[in-house]
Amino acid sequence: MKSVSDPLLNIPEKEELYQRIAEYSDETTIIHSKQKVLYINQSGAEFLKASQAELVGANVVDVFTEDYKEMIAERIRKGMEDRTIGELMDTTVKRFDGTIAEVELYCYPVEYGDTTAIQSIIRDVTVQKKNERELLQLKKEVSTPIVPIIDGLAVMPLVGSVDGDRSTRLLDIIPQKVQGHELHYLIVDVSGIYNIDNVVAEFLYKIDQIMRLLGIGLIFTGIRPELALKAVEARVDFSQLTTMGTVKQALKKHLTANY
């Protein structure tokens, strides 16, 4: 029996061995020559929401979204002609069910049997990229410094989207952020929150309760009618919240009442 390294191993056997190895990978592995898919592993077919039979013979460039196709085609051309390794790059693919996925792409030249080819490894980073964007957005949201107005009173705007995960993180970060400011009242302006839903309504109620326990009274400004309606639908009792139309109104009322 010939060993794997035996130079007399015939071409079909080499291809079969290559495929067997690739099938163990969880990442999308595509072998293509002159843009034509010669082989894709089962993990890759499942990721692209198609069968291996559908993908073999297809143009590999068609997998990528329009804004990347020209770049990918040039990358493949260089790899085929110069036999150079393509550096890791971020790109997007359009799967057969119409969904878009963010991926990392790594390409390098191979010999597939007697065919000069390119092996492309596609790693799905959709969730990772989403988390990175959310973390960046969260940092922006809470990086806006608490603006002291007078002793014991400050303003903090919230902007962007607040979903379940983000509201949980904000509930942790905001109490930490106010520490050291010796606040009695904090005006929280929510006019910059652009998603109006039950999650936001519940978030405002919860952060108010948490801050009360810390001895800080919250004054919410910028609550739009749509948000108030969502609060009613979610059975969140906004009557317990101190609200004003604008930051200016809240400041005027507070300063008039206390000075």
Q: What does this entry show, briefly?
A:
The chain is of the alpha/beta class. The protein is built from 9 helices and 10 strands.
**Biggest pleated-sheet summary:** 5 strands, antiparallel
Total of DSSP H or I helical runs spanning 4+ residues: 9
- Give the number of domains: 2
Q: Which class of secondary structure composition applies to the elements? A: alpha/beta
Distance separating the two termini: 96 Å
The helix content, as a percent range, equals 40-55%
Share of β-strand residues:
25-35%
Q: If classified by CATH, what would the architecture of the largest domain be?
A: 2-Layer Sandwich
* Gross morphology: elongated
Order of strands across the biggest sheet? 2-1-5-4-3
Instruction: Sketch the topology as an H/E string, one letter per element.
Output: HEEHHHEEEHEEHEHEHEH
Spans of at least 5 consecutive residues whose pLDDT stays below 50 are 1-11
Strand element count: 10
| Rg, alpha carbons | 28 Å
CATH superfamily of the largest domain: STAS domain
Protein name: PAS domain S-box-containing protein
Domain PAS: 13-83
Domain STAS: 143-254
